[in-house]
Design goal:
Shape: globular
Protein name: PTS IIA-like nitrogen regulatory protein PtsN
CATH class: Alpha Beta
Radius of gyration: 14 Å
CATH superfamily: Mannitol-specific EII, Chain A
Helix content: 25-40%
Strand content: 15-25%
InterPro entries: PTrfase/Anion_transptr (IPR016152), PTS_EIIA_type-2_dom (IPR002178), PTS_Nitro_regul (IPR006320), PTS_SugarTrans_NitroReg (IPR051541)
GO biological process, one term: phosphoenolpyruvate-dependent sugar phosphotransferase system
Pfam family, one: PTS_EIIA_2
Number of helices: 5
Order of helices and strands: EHHEEEEEHHH
Distance between the termini: 14 Å
Organism: Alteromonas genovensis
CATH topology: Mannitol-specific EII, Chain A
Oligomer: single chain
Number of strands: 6
């Protein structure tokens, strides 16, 4: 999957103030529900929280990939949020997280979900991309850092 197909400026937020794992997931859920009327904030939040209960999606290096599958969602969508300060997210490396690249996938797309996660993880393994995201001052800067 081409990352450009799932990223949108409308679902990108730079430098939000946040202090907890639950609050950042609420912010991500709010953004998703505002952008897509076929899903609601509570459903998105429950999906993300359910996934986090299975194990943190904090992959290390200050990055988390929260994700969930949703009934009623027609297309894969990404929500990208950076936060200040970085927060405890129970990441694999136990370091705080400041870059959140959330993925919401239609419930029936199990295989596509895994491929999309792999594509995003690959993009975020590029040190220059991550540095550019951290330097971002605007939502447009974040989208630009991702090569859009």
């Amino acid at each position: 999957m081409d990352i450009k197909a799932i990223v949108s400026l409308d679902r990108t937020e730079c430098a939000v103030q946040c202090n907890s794992k639950k609050r950042i997931l609420e912010i991500i859920s709010d953004i998703a529900a505002q952008d897509n009327t076929s899903i609601d904030q509570v459903t998105v939040l429950n999906s993300l929280l359910s996934r986090e209960r299975m194990g943190s999606t904090g992959i290390g290096n200050g990055i988390a990939l929260p994700h969930g599958r949703l009934a009623g969602l027609e297309h894969v969508m990404a929500i990208i949020v950076t936060c200040i300060p970085a927060i405890n997210f129970d990441a694999l490396d136990e370091k705080p997280v400041d870059i959140f690249f959330a993925l919401l996938v239609p419930e029936e797309q199990t295989e596509g979900h895994l491929q999309t996660l792999a594509t995003v993880a690959g993009k975020l393994s590029d040190k220059d991309t991550v540095k550019a995201i951290r330097r971002a001052k605007t939502n447009e800067d974040i989208v630009s850092a991702l090569g859009m």
